[in-house]
Amino acid sequence: MIFILIQFRFSLRENIGKIFLISILLSFVSYSFVEADLLGISPLVQNIIFLIYIWMVLKVSLPNSLVMLITGYTVFGLVQSCYAAIFYQIGWIEGVIEMGTNTSYTLSICSSLTMLLLSAAVYYLKAGFSFIGTRGRVAKKKMTMQHKLFVCYIIAAFFITLFSSVYILQNSNPRYLLVASVLLVVLIFIFYFTFKRDESHD
Full-prediction pTM beyond 0.70? Predict the structure, then answer.
């Protein structure tokens, strides 16, 4: 959530309560699905909740909410897949990652700290994108064909990332490096199209 807000130039100070609330909510949802042995659908449910949260609470238009969600989700997926691949290579992981183990906690902590470092880097470099704002502050514009194709790609990227998460959770011997490579390609195109969208907005 912090990475998403900084990446799209939202104020952390104004949204600190919202960050805390969505963190608690998604943690509860994640724990509930682990206890119910429903890991396969947990990523989908959590992302739907996250999307609705961005749309309704941050008051961002639905297409832009998708852009924000999927950019953050793909970056996090790439970071976590890279750590999983490293852990697999050094023998910390043998096959699937089991929830509630020291390895899964270490993976989560490393991924979260890396996302915070990336957020700090984006903030320090004054990077990120400025074309997304709240619905009340942004004039409505008719969607062009280019914008529609951009949204279609973002949706496709979401499902690729989602299937990657499900694959890791369900496969007894997932190929973490392959997943990381796929997510890297997806992310490159996301940032390319987002930069083009930002330029057209400017």
Answer: yes
